[in-house]
Amino acid sequence: MRKILTNFWKRFFHRKTIFRNMITLSLFAAIIPVLVVGIGSYLYSASAVQSEVNQSNVRILNNVSSTIDSTLDRIQNNAIQMLLGYFFSSNLTELKNTNYAGFYSRSSSELSALMNGNKEVGDVAMYVPDEGYLISPIYGGRRIEGIAEREALLKELGTDDQIKWVSGPYPSIPGYNDNGVTLIAKMPLLAKQPIGLMFIRINEELFQNIMKRFISYKGEQMFILDDKGALITSMGGSEVPPGLFDRVTQKGSEQRFQFAFNGIEYMATPITSSFNKWQYINMVPIDQLNAKSNGIKLITLVIVLVCLVLGALITLWGTRRVYRPIQNLVAYVKDGQTDEVETDEVGFVHKRWAELSSTANDMQQQLSDQLPLIREIFALQLLQGRFLYYSEDQLASMLRRYNVPADKESIVIVIAFDLQSEGKVRFQENDRELIVFAVKNIASELIQSHAMEGIGINLLNDQVAVWLYRDPLQAEDDESDIKQFAERLRLLVSDYLHLQVTIGLSGKSEQISELPELYEEALLAVRSRIIVGGNQVIAHTSGKSHSDMHYRYPLEIETHFENSLQLGDRDEAVRMMDEFAKSMGAAIQKPELIQMSYYRLLTAAIRTAYMLGLDTAQLFGESNEDPYLHIRNISTTYELNAWFKEQLVEPIVAYVHGKQHQEHEQLIAKVVRYMEENYHFDLSLDQCAQICGLSPQYLSKLFKKKKDLSFIEYLTKVRIEKSIELLRTTDLSVSDVAERVGYQMKNFIRVFKKQMGVTPGQFRGSDEEN
């Protein structure tokens, strides 16, 4: 064991001076800060944790109180706003006497809206003592039959309070027997003679759910008491400890106090609500507070010790990793030598540097052999504008390095080929790299044969560019030479490879900085074959045509196209496609604008299909072919329109027609169900249209189409059928039957006689005789 340790010390510390120094410095830098931070954290946590835990109870109660108070205040404000609104501020007594069904229908709608806007509310009810009738969105309409309950509610109506909160059960209202709070308000609000009461019930679960989020200690209890000391709700305890409320009211300015209950010492923290003077009391066992504080101190000490151990281990491991490149460098420069390093590593590397210099010279020679390929890559980057932000001196230096003249006129040619050719096909899709290689070689040989200067460039996109540069004086005498050269090049490539070849020819410029613009001009000329056709030399047109200057995307056609798809109007959608294709004529010199415009129209059509519920699999099949890639491969606007009509217009129109039929059936069924459930109220076409989200005119037309009856005729049919049932099965008077089915007496007799041929009384008499 001793021998092993001796060898370890000799190997890693005796000779490798850099490694030894790195370990010493790293250990010092890692351990000292950990000790300082650990001791400081331990001392700080011992004093700060206890104070922080003591203050947390106050924050908890403030959060609980603020959450509950803001909820109650919001509900009360919403109730006041409703009671001061147009409906409840009107003459409710006159409305009830003149339109009994309409009064209760509108009241029910207002109560439902209030309840839907306040999710915390358990129930909203309205009580009118004249009829003893209570309506609620939850329980519906019902009468208060108990004499004691009706007297209690009548007494409540005679009090001076316009609006107030009541805690605990409210037995006068059925369903309000559990713990909670109830908001009682008179209606109309502030009226001298109110006609009824409104009740808003908030169940105990709301408060318990809010309190539950803030319970964090084992054995912790939380109570909410009203200003009289009565329990509203609690968490952790079912009853208020005796003497707790008296201690809270007598505490004065004391923020917290200790309280003993069932042999356990608690830290009690009370808060008084400014909204309703409720007492929020939190009780946490003192031993739980101390346990958390002590636990944090212990964890701090453990973390410090663990960090010290891990710091030392990571320092040794990290130093070894950092030293490894130096070790590898020494091993590399030794070049197989087995001699030990007599000096430190830096000295040994310095000694070997002279030997490696000769090897570097050999590599430089190899680099020179690769200069043509590097020169081509430089030319490609120059075309793509990678050196636009270089200074003139930097750019001139790079041009000299790659033997490219900087004071000559430049012209760019872009060569594109199409594998789809007439006659025998010599190449397949996977032969594109071979074709590009052949095209570049033909271009390079033609440059040499014409005694011209230039560079053939593989654009890495199945196209080849030729950068030609010549003396400006020569260019003035040989203006047509470039076009002849381009045509000669196109014919050679086309004849040799039996392919359709298109060449884009740029303008000319004496500025190297404008070379990317020349490249873009040549690319645009090649792309314009989508309009003017391929298999030719296309020269870039200098300047912009009148139509090109005023081109804009036809947004109005796109909008009309989307609307036609949404309505399922196939003929109009096809007409918009034809108009869209005509508008593309303004961009004949910018084919990329045509492609971008069809991209945008495709996006609009896919968006419309998505909004209608139609996914891409139904449009483009399970293969999920990329439609944007498909557009890129189409060569003419005529083919684009045909593809749009087949892949988008036809499926979307068919889907819309099917969906409209199904939706109409569902809407009419919904209206019929609503009419059969609410026929006794004052129903209108506008009300049913609002429920369906349709205009009254459209609903009327659709209802007539589906039911062969108008809205009023069908409603009359339902009411007369219900009245016949009441006349046959009950002893109700004719006026009561009229009220039950939503008619006034005079109108009921007139409508019944028109439908049945006899009055309601005659119908009942004849029915009894039979």
TrEMBL record:
KW Cell wall biogenesis/degradation (keyword) present: no
InterPro entries attached to this UniProt entry: CdaR_GGDEF (IPR041522), Homeodomain-like_sf (IPR009057), HTH_AraC (IPR018060), HTH_AraC-typ_CS (IPR018062)
Gene3D superfamilies documented for this protein: Homeodomain-like (1.10.10.60)
Tree of life domain: Bacteria
Keyword list, A-Z: DNA-binding, Membrane, Transcription, Transcription regulation, Transmembrane, Transmembrane helix
Pfam families (alphabetical): GGDEF_2, HTH_18
Residues covered by the HTH araC/xylS-type domain: 669-766
Membrane-spanning segments: 21-44, 298-317
Name of the protein in its database record: AraC family transcriptional regulator
Native source organism of the sequence: Paenibacillus plantarum
